């Protein structure tokens, strides 16, 4: 037993520096760490997560939930609401999709839940790879983002950041918002990479610019847009 204890002590001693300086992150590309830097010093805030996927796996908001921020999580996957209610009980958790109008859409569920989508084009793209397949299709209620915010966001509450990962329908989610009424300080959108030198050719970039947002930062897939009328970094 003493030999085992000594081995454990040596292991802990070897890894202690790495463990001590490890930075917790839950996003797939470190988006939450960029947001943490943006909102450094802000003790309380509000987020909206469209395509929230999971309470903490690939989550851009879970780090902020741990920091006592609160918000709205929206995902159409059956069973998601119960999972979020268990691990994120102080958030508003909604099991629905987002589209330009209230309707029911066919939702394709993959063996990799991160790929679940309403988009037939995305289904065709993802199933090109043999390891991914659709295991179920279900009809899901979808609402415009503006209607969801009208219903569930507290009156007068500002949004510090909106994060969108809608697997091919990100533009539809963006178009379904009322940009005159709901203007998050920052908007994160997952989209295909494009060369920064050719931003004018990007539908996403042009749309956000028309809404009064500028490209502020990016990871490989995620673009951060900043409200150009917002001057104090929401602090």
Automatic annotation (TrEMBL):
GO terms for biological process: endoplasmic reticulum to Golgi vesicle-mediated transport; endosomal transport; methylation. This is FkbM family methyltransferase. It comes from the Bacteria. Keywords: Methyltransferase, Transferase. GO terms for molecular function: methyltransferase activity. The keyword Transferase applies. Residues 49-213 form the Methyltransferase FkbM domain. GO terms for cellular component: cytoplasm; plasma membrane. It comes from Chitinophaga eiseniae. The keyword Transferase applies.
